């Protein structure tokens, strides 16, 4: 029977050959842009700083006053001989040099702590090594050893700029040129990149208040089954709760899709046909959940054939072998995924995730993969099997994975031993998809699993 099935790889090849994403773009505010995929190159609209700016906290001066050494500055007045500036500040064009705030002391003996530069009353300038000295941020390196304080210069005497331990005074020191942070036209993000939190301030600094992104595809999910009832209602004999709609909404939205979940559709062909017609109008992809096998009420494959070209039915994957896909005449994709919850999870995790990566042209950041060691031999059937695992940390820090209800569990740190009872669902924290084309995984071998908690 399996000889008539196709692999997951072949299923994806057929879908990609028949279905082409019809991407749209939309403009979103910068606060909604994180996690979205940018649609076009983003370049800076301005030089930052627009003009030169202070490279550190200090006072702005005209270097002409310092060219022959530091003069008597005890009568200097703010706004005339100097001005205050903090890192990144613009300052008056009369000034061309920034002296570190650590070099400045007020003359007034009653100056309050923190009131380093008074509006009046004069200042003293004492060049010091260390921050703002040789090799300090935003200034050229001078002579002298970093961290070594300079001798106090007497007012009216030239600064000993070339003596060991003395910082070198230069015109333009601690001044950032225009465009030194960002140049106008500089590339901030390439089209197709996912916008991260760190990209947001770069975009804002580059002049963006909104950004064009690839619109989220609309994926409709249609739960089917006469036995299904909504969550929270009293459960009676022959009924099951519709858990898959909630699963699908969460997974699709986490993967970057706009999920549209339809009400439960009973196993009646006319009702399902109507729901499918409505979903195709508003969707890029439609997922029908259930009715994909060969039961008396499983007629979904017939519906798919009536809406377009059937690409496949049955794949080498479990749970969820009776999966099908079709493309309508107008290019819409329909997936029919088997009804069990693990089959729905599996189908979305391996198939829909890849389709979303095709849509965005970028990786889908969903799930956390981790490298672990198998604590027991894993099953190796001739199809891709979804295994639920329990991953624990051994005393040496090694992560050990055991299948839930599998052939063994550790008798000690990392050691296989007899398993007396299945691992409870609450202890399952990872899943693994076996590869029927690859070698079987044996105890002690490494494998990459998808952590689910």
For the record, the CATH architecture of the largest domain stands as 3-Layer(aba) Sandwich
Helix content: 10-25%
Gyration radius (Cα, Å) is: 34 Å
Total domain units: 4
Describe this structure in words.
There is one protein chain. Helix 3 packs parallel to helix 6. Helices cover 16% and strands 25% of the residues. It starts with 7 loop residues before the first helix and ends with a strand. It has 453 residues and is an alpha+beta fold. About 10% of the residues have low confidence. The longest helix is centred in the C-terminal third of the chain and has 20 residues. It is elongated and about 100 Å long. The strands form nine sheets. A six-stranded mixed sheet has the order 15-12-16-20-19-17, with helices on both faces. It has a five-stranded mixed β-barrel with strand order 21-23-22-26-27. The protein folds into four domains: 159 residues, MoaB/Mog-like domain (Molybdenum Cofactor Biosythetic Enzyme, Chain A, 3-Layer(aba) Sandwich); 57 residues, Molybdopterin biosynthesis moea protein, domain 2 (Alpha-Beta Complex), CATH 3.90.105.10; 131 residues, Molybdopterin biosynthesis moeA protein, domain 3; 84 residues, Beta Barrel (Beta-clip).
């Amino acid at each position: 029977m399996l000889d008539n099935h196709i692999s997951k790889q072949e299923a994806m090849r057929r879908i990609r050959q028949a279905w082409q994403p019809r991407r749209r773009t939309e403009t979103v505010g910068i606060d909604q842009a994180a996690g979205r995929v940018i649609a076009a190159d983003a370049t800076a609209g301005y030089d930052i700083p627009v003009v030169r700016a202070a490279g550190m906290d200090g006072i702005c001066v005209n270097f002409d006053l310092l060219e022959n050494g530091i003069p008597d500055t005890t009568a200097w007045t703010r706004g005339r001989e100097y001005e205050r500036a903090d890192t990144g500040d613009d300052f008056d064009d009369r000034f061309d040099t920034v002296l570190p705030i650590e070099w400045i002391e007020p003359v007034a003996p009653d100056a309050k702590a923190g009131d380093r530069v008074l509006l009046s009353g004069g200042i003293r300038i004492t060049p010091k090594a260390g921050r703002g000295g040789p090799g300090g941020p935003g200034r050229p390196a001078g002579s002298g050893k970093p961290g070594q304080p300079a001798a106090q210069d007497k007012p009216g005497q030239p600064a000993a700029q070339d003596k060991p331990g003395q910082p070198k005074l230069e015109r333009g020191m601690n001044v950032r040129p225009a465009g030194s942070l960002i140049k106008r036209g500089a590339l901030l993000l390439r089209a197709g990149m996912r916008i991260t939190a760190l990209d947001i301030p770069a975009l804002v600094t580059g002049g963006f208040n909104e950004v064009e992104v690839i619109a989220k595809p609309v994926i409709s999910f249609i739960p089917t089954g006469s036995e299904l009832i909504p969550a929270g209602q009293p459960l009676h004999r022959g009924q099951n709760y519709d858990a898959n709609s909630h699963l699908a909404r969460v997974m699709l939205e986490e993967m970057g899709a706009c999920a549209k979940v339809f009400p439960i559709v009973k196993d009646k062909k006319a009702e399902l046909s109507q729901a499918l017609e409505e979903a195709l109008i508003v969707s890029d992809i439609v997922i029908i959940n259930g009715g994909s096998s060969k039961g008396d009420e499983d007629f979904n494959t017939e519906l798919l054939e009536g809406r377009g070209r059937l690409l496949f039915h049955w794949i080498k994957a479990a749970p969820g072998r009776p999966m099908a896909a079709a493309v309508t005449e107008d290019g819409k994709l329909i997936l029919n995924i088997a009804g069990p919850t693990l089959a729905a999870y599996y189908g979305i995790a391996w198939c829909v995730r890849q389709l979303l990566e095709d849509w965005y042209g970028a990786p889908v950041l969903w799930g956390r993969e981790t490298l672990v060691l198998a604590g027991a031999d894993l099953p190796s059937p001739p199809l891709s099997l979804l295994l639920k695992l329990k991953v624990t940390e051994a005393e040496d820090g090694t992560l050990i994975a055991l299948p839930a209800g599998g052939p063994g569990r550790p008798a000690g740190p990392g050691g296989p031993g007899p398993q007396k009872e299945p691992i409870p669902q609450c202890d399952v924290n990872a899943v693994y998809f076996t590869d029927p084309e690859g070698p079987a995984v044996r105890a002690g071998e490494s494998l990459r699993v998808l952590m689910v908690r």
